[in-house]
Design goal:
The protein contains 9 helices and 5 strands. A 5-stranded parallel sheet has the order 2-3-1-4-5, sandwiched between helices. The structure holds adenosine monophosphate. The site of adenosine monophosphate has 17 residues, from helix 2 and helix 3. Adenosine monophosphate binds next to helix 2 and helix 3.
Length: 196
């Protein structure tokens, strides 16, 4: 299995690049943000639980996220692989993921991090707010989301770097060029680590 974690600030293009990677390698897409947005839309108990956190741009408690992710990730054991988009969001989640995957004999193959300058992230998210009408894309919430990314999620880069699993890609380019760089980096990583 080729299991990929997609890291990057909100607005760095994780969703867009996840689509490209899935098409290219035939992976299953698991986006915790998409999962929770669907639950809110459906008006489920889980949706009601997470709505307030998402509207403020805060992280949903680890216990809630992990339970959902475990349930869904295990459904896809035996597929070509999974791409995790929006998870893990902090070191604790990263450690829990490693533990779960170890237990189930699934490996995290590599983490791809999209790098985009801060002012570009901000502009992209403002634009997305207009197009998609996401309640967590107002100016104050965007600032909060970026702040939380730097404080909680960015340290995961160091975590995966220490495990020799990090690939950093310049995400401030045309979509096809970013995708091509990601494919090259993944192929090289797979060759070096003999992932089947
Ligand atoms: P995203 O679509 O990945 O930007 O996520 C949107 C929002 O969903 C985040 O701002 C959080 O409120 C929540 N969320 C998504 N994934 C996670 C996660 N792994 N841990 C905690 N909260 C999350």
């Amino acid at each position: 299995m080729l299991n990929i974690i997609l890291l990057g600030a909100p607005g760095s293009g994780k969703g867009t690049q996840a689509e490209q990677i899935i098409k290219h390698y035939g992976l299953v897409h698991l986006s915790t943000g998409d999962i929770f947005r669907a639950e809110i839309k459906a008006g489920s108990d889980l949706g009601k639980l997470v709505k307030g956190y998402m509207e403020k741009g805060e992280l949903i408690p680890d216990s809630v996220v992990l339970k959902e992710l475990y349930r869904r990730a295990l459904l896809h054991k035996g597929s070509n692989g999974i791409i995790l988009d929006g998870f893990p969001r902090n070191i604790q989640q990263g450690q829990m993921l490693d533990k779960l995957f170890r237990k189930k004999k699934i490996g995290v193959s590599l983490a791809v991090c999209l790098e985009v300058p801060e002012d570009e992230l901000f502009n992209r998210m403002l634009l997305r707010a207009k197009i998609q009408n996401r309640p967590d894309d107002t100016e104050d919430v965007i600032k909060n989301r970026l702040r939380i990314y730097r404080a909680e999620t960015e340290p995961l880069k160091e975590y995966y770097k220490n495990h020799h699993k990090l690939i950093e890609v310049n995400g401030y380019r045309e979509i096809g060029n970013v995708a091509a760089s990601i494919f090259d980096a993944i192929d090289e990583f797979v060759r070096q680590h003999r992932i089947g």
